[in-house]
Amino acid sequence: MENLLLIIVLAPLAGAIIAGFFGGTIGRAGAHWVTSLSVALSCLLSFHVLLGLISGDRQPFDGTVYNWMVAGGIQFQVGFLVDRLTAMMMVVVTFVSLMVHIYTIGYMADEEHNWPKDSLAGVNAYQRFFSYIALFTFAMLMLVMSNNFLQLFFAWEAVGLVSYLLIGFWMNRPTAVFANLKAFLVNRVGDFGFLLGIGVVLLFYGSLNYSEVFATAAANPDLTMSIFGGAEWQVATVAGILLFIGAMGKSAQVPLHVWLPDSMEGPTPISALIHAATMVTAGIFMVARMSPIYELSAVALSFILVIGAITALFMGLVGLVQNDIKRVVAYSTLSQLGYMVVALGVSAYAAGVYHLMTHAFFKALLFLGAGSVIIAMHHKQDMREMGGLKKYMPVTYWTMLIGTLALIGFPAFSGYFSKDGIILAVAESQRAGATFAYLCVLAGVFVTALYSFRLLFLVFHGEGRMDRHTREHLHESPLVVTIPLILLAIPSVLIGLVTVMPMVLGDWFGDAIFVSQANDVLAAVAAKYDSAWGLVAHGFVSLPLYLAAAGFLTAWYLYVIRPDLPDQLRQRFALAYTILEKKYWFDELHLNVFAGIGRALGRFFWKVTDVGLIDGLLVNGTARTIGRVAAGLRRVQTGFLFHYAFVMIIGLLVMLTWFVFGAR
Amino acid sequence: MLESSWPLLSLLIWMPILGGVLILLLGDQQQALGRLIALGVSLATFLFSLLLITGFEAGTAAMQFVELRPWVEALGVNYHLGVDGISMPLVVLTTFSTVLVVIAGWNRIAYRPGLYMACFLIMEGIVVGVFSALDAILFYVFWEAVLVPMFLIIGIWGGQNRIYATIKFFLYTFIGSVLMLVALIYLQFQAGSFGILDMYGLNLPLSVQVWLFIAFLLAFAIKVPMWPVHTWLPDAHVQAPTGGSVILAAIMLKIGGYGFVRFSLPITPGASLELDWLMILLSLVAVVYIGLVAMMQEDMKKLIAYSSIAHMGFVTLGFFIVFQVVVNAGESGALLALGGGMVQMISHGFISAAMFLCVGVLYDRMHTRMISEYGGVTHRMPVFAGLFVLFAMANAGLPGTSGFVGEFMVILAAFQANFWYAFFAGLTLILGAAYTLWMVKRVMYGPVGNEKVGALKDVDGREKLVLGVLAVAVLWLGLYPGPLIEIMEPSLEGLLQHVVAGSGLN
Predict the structure, then answer these.
(1) Which residues on neighbouring strands pair with residue B77, listed in sequence order?
(2) pLDDT band with cut points at 50, 70 and 90 for residue A655
(3) Closest A-chain CA to B147
């Protein structure tokens, strides 16, 4: 099995290396073929592994690939843990990645015009892009397949690196290179917590290997540590919160979410792959993977719950006032990530991971659909200049409609099951913060429907608001673009119906996810429903569907029936509008307060302490005194400096040689 | 101790020195020949130094390749050489870096290139001497001798303000080492020999140890450099020619770090325990305070110089948290700390060399180091930009590069000493990325900044070779640090046991 797993991870790496280093030789077609085929191979084999695990032909694998180092008797290894949770992630990652590879062939076809004419960085940029997304696939696979914290951290940072490179892919754009620096730094704040979390794990659980750590944690649930003063903290709480801070960076939770909307500066395929479907869900996966630790700490889970609830509702609200089509989808992603985190917070890990999976399909679909619109609009992204695109781009419209229905949780669509699973689980939970979270996720349903249909109506319905030139050239995107849309639309509709019972309400994940009996809210939900259709039937008599319908109707009324109304509302509720438009001033907080204090301190330490105090007073003061004494001697020395120095060396040399080799 | 059948270490010391003298004797007329000799000698020295690795007996803390001859018998001074797992990697780092510097300076030096090459070869031999000397006086001689070629390199081929920088450099480091000499002589009286290993056996009263520790501290802290005696480094770097900066950062700073493990910890373990709080404090100041200062720099070389200081903070942090780690979590974590400090030294040798070479590549073309005069370099120099981003990421401690390994080990170990040590040390994740990648953004990315940038030519074959070799080294150590740890660990274990026992902790 190990060889098979190695092929799965190494194939995309090989593809990335070939396309990256030999892109000029193999040409554009060579690059997209080699990377797409390598990812296709990974994808096929991942399906094979998943099916093997489901059928029982295969047992979960937990083994070491190589010893990175052994220091102080501690093993630092690279190794794989492949159980159903991992296999599901592998399939999601490679499948979405494959779709994005194919789509990119169309999306990036005319990407030369993004570069200044004589830019050498623009040469082979197409190949470089494919190299990066294949490299990302490798890093993401290493992340989900890891069996230890070292490799997890490796991959955690590696996906961050590729994200950095891809957000800043068009490196001549100042906004893009600002966004990628911001993304990397904000993620580093998260990683800082994450690394400290690993420090806690190693110190108290004595290993970096998951299975050993989980066993030790379970055996010592009441370990405590002190951080400041005499207060004792439960180790699981500290480890859990610190690790989750990493997840807050990667999975863009408030207040570390600020990088994700800006990451939309990158090409759209990577917004779909990295900033919607896979990388940003790494935090969700990580918490689910660490469920044996999190289950020990109600405090950590409550923290997670509240952060997730805030993100789910308040980021969705910001999505209401965005005009850039990609930013609407980006805020929607933030909000949905919040939903997943809420699920984790009530110990409904399976529901969170399940929403991760369905979201990967329909959000990748929505992003790729938005990309298709952007191609048609000649890379304009402002929805105020769109409208009426439905008749020009039927495939894009219908697939995006499917994606939207899945997103808002229309009964029987995949998103319905996953989101309803979360809402039901929160309703069952007794955890501190659960009531607040419940209100947030319910309100979020209305908000989701409102911004989603606002997008759909503004883009596809009503009058076309684009200029004449653009209108005349409107047409559906080529097949390499629309086929991935269709292929993603299929699971967006169907996957929930097929899989919800075992995966959310059953014991599909087995030992991969651990939930203690007292926390098992999903079991409580499962007791009430015995089939997927039962869940659907329940949907029609419960609140979320009506909230979604209300959101839809509001959007329809505001953007189809009375398109003049939004402007009036904006003026009437200017304060609320400003708050949303300014995104609660989080950017200003980060840029001016945190970064500002850092810069001010840096300048102070440099100019005042270093140059002023240490150099000015101490060093140069001493030097000046010596200088005055030496001034008299200067005339003698001038011109003889080199000779003097060399006499010193040669003298030493002669002495040494004489004593050592002469005095035998 | 494992005696050497033939004097390999002597060869590594004297071959480059004699090579350098030979070039000097040839004079300035024979430039081409001088360069060839420099390349040949440095390559040969490097290849011979590989015998240290192949012939190294792993699994022992004993000194290897030992050479012992009487030197000044009246004073008990011996010509005593040998390496263990701590010094051997540093010797190889020295010979490796010198080859790169010779190639990097190949046709870049217009004024007296022969003398330039000679300085680096002589420097190489002297530094190998520092790392392999087992006699205190021999060590001291090499230690002081290092200053001379460095003084010349900065003073002759330096920038506008080189005289100020050299005087500052010389005063700082010279004053620092004078007290060390006093300490060494005192130790000779106590131990009856100048043998460094003999001094390990002394069991001095704590008050004496503290004085000795402070004497050593001044010498080593200035070399590392540690806050607040670090201000010579940015000036020296800014004024030094590229090769000088490379050797300064890659090797000279390591002499200070090496001093702590070879002298301070084992000879004055009690004082090290007594004053570990000070060392930890200064190390954390280096990481945080210097990290913030680095962020605000406008001159690329100064930025990298400050980042060097911040990174060297991990070396001293790793060395001096061992006592608290042993108390809290046992020796396993303490080995992680020591090993992390050592790996950080090697890694910093690669990364800082690469970063300074990168700035050199730009400076050679643009004759400015100011960040604001660049912008969009990647559009003209894509290959260079790729390498630069790789080294920048390594400088920011990205996993998979060597920059990650040492910092990761030290932070994990620091956690075992105290949460807050790890907290402040961990800030490097944010600060390191901030100062490095902000510079990358302003220099490399964005639209082409001005006409001069627009006329840049990408790296040539020679530059590609030098940076490519360093890229391989950075990635190799990042992806597979196991072998290096294996070489070092037995020696570190021996050191740790000696230090813990000697400090009176157990």
Answers:
(1) B72
(2) low
(3) A645
- Top residue of B23, B430, B435, B448 to mutate, by most chain A CBs within 10 Å, is B430
> Cβ separation of B171 and A601 shorter than 8 Å?
no
Can you tell me whether residue B396 is helix, strand or coil?
A: coil
If you count residue pairs, one on A and one on B, with CB atoms under 8 Å apart, how many are there? 204
Nearest to A168 among B167, B380, B445 (CB): B445
Average pLDDT, rounded, for chain A = 88
CA B476 to chain centre: 19
Residue with more model confidence, B4 or B355? B355
pLDDT in tens, A572-588: 888 888 888 888 888 88
Of B172, B295, B380, the CB nearest to A602: B295
Cα angle for residues B286, B292, B297 (degrees, 5° grid): 110
Whether B135 contacts B77, CB under 8 Å: yes
pLDDT at B291 exceeding the cut of 90? yes
B123/B138 Cα distance (integer angstroms): 15
A664 pLDDT above the threshold of 50: no
Tell me the pLDDT tens digit for each residue of B178-221: 888 888 888 888 888 888 888 888 888 888 899 999 999 999 99
Q: How many residues does chain A have?
A: 664
Q: Give the model confidence (pLDDT) of B39-75 as tens digits.
A: 999 999 999 999 999 988 888 888 999 888 888 777 7
- ipTM of this complex prediction, to 2 decimal places: 0.92
* Cα–Cα–Cα angle for B247, B251, B252, rounded to 5 degrees: 90
| Residue-wise pLDDT tens digits, B85-144 | 999 999 999 999 999 999 988 887 778 878 888 899 999 999 999 999 999 989 998 998
pLDDT of residue A652 exceeding 80: no
User: Which of A17-21, A593-597, B141-145, B350-354 is least confident?
Assistant: A593-597
A342 near A355, Cβ under 8 Å?
no
SS3 at position B135 = strand
Which residues are within 8 A (CB) of A301 and not within 5 positions of it... i.e. 6 or more apart? A240, A294, A344, A345, A346, A347, A431, A519
Partner residue opposite B296 with nearest CB, options A72, A602, A646: A602
Angle between helices A434-460 and A414-428 (to 10 degrees): 160
Chain A CB contacts of B122 under 8 Å are 649
At residue A636, the pLDDT reads 45
- Integer CA distances (angstroms), B485 to B50, B187, B405, B481, B489, in order: 17, 31, 11, 6, 6
Burial class (CB in 10 A: 0-12, 13-18, 19+), A7: middle
Distance of CA A491 to the CA centre of its chain: 21
- Token pair of A402, please? 């499917």
Among A22, A66, A605, which would you mutate to test the B interface (most chain B Cβ atoms within 10 Å of its Cβ)? A605
Q: Are A116 and B329 within 8 A, CB to CB?
A: no
Contact status of A69 with chain B (Cβ, < 8 Å):
yes
3-class SS letters over B397-463: CCCCCHHHHHHHHHHHHHHHHCHHHHHHHHCHHHHHHHHHHHHHHHHHCCCCCCHHHHCCCCCCHHH
- Locate A10 and state its tokens: 């190494």
Q: CA-nearest residue of chain B to A190?
A: B430
Q: Which of A181, A194, A597 to mutate to test the interface with B (most CBs of B within 10 A)?
A: A181
Q: How far apart are CA B175 and CA A206, in angstroms?
A: 45
Subunit contact B232:A663, Cβ cutoff 8 A: no
Please tell me if residue A158 touches chain B, with a CB cutoff of 8 Å: yes
Show the tokens assigned to A126.
Answer: 């197409």
Mapped onto helix, strand or coil, the DSSP state of residue A65 is strand
What is the SS3 string spanning B254-303?
Answer: HHHHHHHHHHHHHHCHHHHHHCHHHHHHHHHHHHHHHHHHHHCCCEHHHH
